[in-house]
Amino acid sequence: MNLYDRMQKSLENNRHNGVFRTIIPKIQNKGMIKIDSKDYLNLSSNDYLGLASDSNCLNEFYEESNSQLLRMSSSGSPLLTGAHESYAQVCEVMENLFHKKATFFNSGFSANSGVLSILGAEDTLIIADKLAHASMIDGLTASKGKFLRYAHNDYDHLERLIQKSEISYENIIIVTEAVFSMDGDRCDLKKLVELKHKYQNIYIYVDEAHGFGVLSEDGSGLCGSLGLIDEVDFILTTFGKALASEGACILTNETARDYIINNSRPLIFSTALSPYTFAHEAFMVNYMKKRNDLRLRLDKLSAYIHQTLNECNFENVSSSQIIPIITGDNERTLKASEFFKEHGIYAMPIRHPTVPAGKGRLRISLNAGLNDSQIEMLADTIRAFSRK
């Protein structure tokens, strides 16, 4: 079988199983999205605070930054020409917020895969939550060290793995998401810190992609909301979700920062984000810190939709603004997505193998920009779907 025949066979298999993916151009305008000339309420975006559609916020950035003078290309990696003045600016902003050293990557995916791939070693075991993001798994599989998985948020299982492994390894790194991207639930960070203090040479790596900007009064994520930033050794933040920008940052101590700069291939061999982007990141961090009103609004909307799910007897695993509506197999999930579109709502279907078989879902992503009538429209659609 030649190369293209093999590719075609794989694609046909995807179509047969209802998991064929395509990229379709879309137009986003405030809380709406236009697809094939039709407007829908957009509940698939990760714009959790609604800032990507906030023209006042954007205009304030233009005025404050003198953005016309900012280069649109860094023209090199951070080690060559990519670390411009605005790079130093956003480093300072992030380091003041987290009191850790900041290292920037082009995306959360490249940050997770690029850092985790260099943390494993013969003397170091990495133990990751079973539902850790694909970027983490790619990093672990590329690592020279061994890694294990613990059952999702099952800390008794995690502790048993630590007990079995602590004699064989000098270091153990626990890897988790703060808010899990598919289920919308949270890790028990306090329990992880307890394990860190109970055993020797335990380190904690937390992906705050879906918590940064959303949790704690200053937006410093789950780690900040619990006052545990100092206890977490590696904190990933992304800027393309609640902060309406792009890129990612790893926050560590100085030794780890220097080790990442000297060893992480996605950082060393990638052209850095533009000076314009770094300036925008710095502005957005300072801006979102002041907008706790948006976080409170998002909490209120999330609580109402959680209540609606519970009243309709849906399985509700979430504790955040990411709210999956569990639908079952892939075929039923696709039908559910079409039902919501018929009711004017764009909610993307998430199917196996992205989620376990039989756990297909519509992944509802709420944002603080939704008005009361829009959130009631969602609640009414959930109620109507529950009666099908």
Query: Ranges with pLDDT <50 over ≥5 residues?
Result: none
Percent helix range: 40-55%
Report the count of strand segments: 14
* Separate helix tally: 14
| Sequence of strands across the biggest β-sheet | 4-10-9-8-7-5-6
User: Helix-strand pattern, N to C?
Assistant: HEEEHHEHEHEHEHEHEEHHHHEHEEEH
Mean pLDDT: 95
What's the overall geometry? globular
Content of β-strand: 15-25%
* Classification by helices and strands: alpha/beta
Using the CA coordinates, give the radius of gyration. 21 Å
The major sheet is characterized as:
7 strands, mixed
Distance between the termini: 45 Å
Describe the model.
There is one protein chain. The radius of gyration is 21 Å and the shape is globular. It is built from 14 helices and 14 strands. Helix 2 packs across helix 11 (275-289), helix 3 (85-98) packs parallel to helix 11 (275-289) and helix 4 (108-119) packs parallel to helix 5. By secondary structure, it is an alpha/beta fold. It is 42% helix and 18% strand. It has helices at residues 3-16, 55-65, 85-98, 108-119, 134-142, 155-165, 189-198, 221-225, 254-263, 265-268, 275-289, 292-311, 330-342, 372-386; strands spanning 27-29, 32-35, 38-42, 101-105, 124-129, 146-150, 171-177, 202-207, 234-238, 248-252, 322-328, 345-346, 349-350, 360-365. The strands form three sheets. It has a seven-stranded mixed sheet with strand order 4-10-9-8-7-5-6, sandwiched between helices. A four-stranded mixed sheet has the order 1-2-3-12. The model has no long low-confidence stretch (mean pLDDT 95). The longest helix is centred in the last third of the chain and has 20 residues, at 292-311. Helix 5 (134-142) links the parallel strand 5 (124-129) and strand 6.
